[in-house]
Each structure stands twice: as structure tokens, then as C-alpha cells.
Amino acid sequence: MNIIKLNATDSTNTYLIKLSKKEWIEDKTLVVAKTQFMGRGQMDTSWQSTPQQSLTFSLFKRFKNLSLKDHFYIAFAVSIGIKKTMENYLVPDISIKWPNDIMSLSKKMSGILIENQIRNNKVINSVIGVGLNVNEEYFKTLPQATSMFLTTGIKNNLDKVLKSVSKTIFTELDRIEKGDTKFLKNKYEEFLFRKDRVTVFEDIEGNRFNGIIKGVSKIGELQIEKKNHVLQKYKLREIKMLF
Predict the structure, then answer these.
(1) N or C: the chain end with fewer CB closer than 10 Å?
(2) How many Å apart are CA 21 and CA 12, to the nearest integer?
(3) H or E segment at 132?
């Protein structure tokens, strides 16, 4: 990997996107920052990180023949890569909360933000931002957050975790152009948080209902079984899980 280390930046994703507009970036480039002032998450949220205790980094991946309609396989691959790495570090009860939060013991440990460059209905490259809580001992204002340390009691070397998780993510991303997309979808569904359990959801109009997560569609829609075994699909921003 080509690794770029920064002391501080507003956002590693923003840094990579701006850099890609000025110069050619090598495939599988990694940008990591000790401090990130304006970390971004899904749906215009922010990502809070603690310097020297957590990892904030972005990965640059080029694709040769990835159709825009198949872009969600990127999220599948990245989520699986983080989960596999956490298993190697003995983090317990790891799952993927749709669309791409990594959970341990029902609390959020990692978040992902994927920003794609599109040309002629194909994804030509992807900037993948990852925030991973590693050695935090408490979260004062984030009761639903956790870290590798809080779930295992073990302090980890940030550089070693970074190299391990980025290598595994790139390995899973390589499956896309190898044609292993069915494997990625099946594994992603297998790891879904609260899959096959009755859960309370809230739709875009504020209506609450009970449903059971059954899987995801090929384009990443969440499939929820409602009353009378009716299966309904939801896109990002159309549904919120309450737990």
C-alpha cells in the first residue's frame, strides 16, 4: 500500500478527493490522520474521534468494470473486512448494522463513509472513509458507542490495527472484480445486526412498526418482513432502527 500520514486534516475523505482532482493516485492508497477536525459520517452526520486512541483513515480503490448499479458491493466488502479484522482481535459479538456500522455487543465501534467517482454509469474509483474506536476507555456523550478496548480489555497498537484492517478491506474489495459478489452479499447478510429478530423501526413519515430484517437486495435495500409476512424494501434515509 501507498501510505500517506497526516498530523491533522479536516477529513481524510475530503483530503483524498481533493488530491485525486489534482494528481494521479495509486490504487490502494491509504491516508491516515492523527487528528481529524471535521470527520464525516453517513447522512450528513459527523464522526467524533479521540486523537491517539482511535483510527481515522481513508482508502482509495480503483475499479476497472464496476457498474453503478452494483456499487453497494463496496459497502459489503468493507464491512466484512472490518468484521473479519475485529474477529482476529477477539472482539466479541460483532455485527453489521445496515448499511455499514460495525457493532460489538450492540454498540457502535466503527463507521464507514463511501464516496464514489462515476463515469459512464460505472464506478471508476472509490474513497472509503473509516472511523474505528480502538483504545478509548469511555464515551462521555455517546452512550451507544464502544471501542476495541472496552469490549476486550486489551490496548492495541494503532499502527498494527491500521495495517491489519486496511489489508483485509482491500482483500475483500478485490473480490468484486474477481466476481465473488454472491459471496460478499451472503456474508454481509449473515452478519446483519438483529437479523431474524423482531425490531422496532421508524419510517420517513415518523410511523413506528415492528419488523424482522431478512436480508438486503442486490442494490443494498434493507428487506424487512412486516405483518402477514409481507417483505418490504427500504433505501437509505427511508427507515431508522430503534433499539
Answers:
(1) C
(2) 14
(3) strand 122-133
The reported pTM is 0.93
What are 120's three cell numbers?
A: 459512464
pLDDT > 90 in the chain, percent: 86
CA distance 68 to 61: 15
Inter-CA distances, 205 with 95, 154, 209, 240, Å: 28, 43, 12, 11
Element (H, E) at 160: helix 158-178
Q: Look-up: residue for cell 433505501?
A: 235
What is the spatial distance between Cα 198 and Cα 225, in angstroms, rounded to a whole number? 9
The predicted pLDDT at position 1 comes to 84
- Count CB-CB contacts under 10 A for residue 24: 6
Please enumerate in sequence order all residues whose Cβ is within 8 A of that of 170, keeping only pairs 6 or more positions apart, or say none.
Answer: 1, 28, 59, 61, 81
Asked if residue 236 lies in contact with residue 42, where contact means CB atoms within 8 angstroms, the answer is yes
Express each pLDDT in 134-165 by its tens digit: 999 999 888 899 999 999 999 999 999 999 99
- Grid cell of 240 as nine digits: 431508522
Burial of 38 (0-12, 13-18, 19+ CB in 10 A): exposed
Residue 33, CA atoms < 13 Å, CB-side half-sphere: 22
- Please say whether the beta carbons of 99 and 114 come within 8 A: no
Which residue is it, cell 454481509? 188
Q: Using CA atoms, how far apart are residues 2 and 169, in angstroms rounded to an integer?
A: 15
Distance from C-alpha of 184 to C-alpha of 101, rounded to nearest angstrom: 16
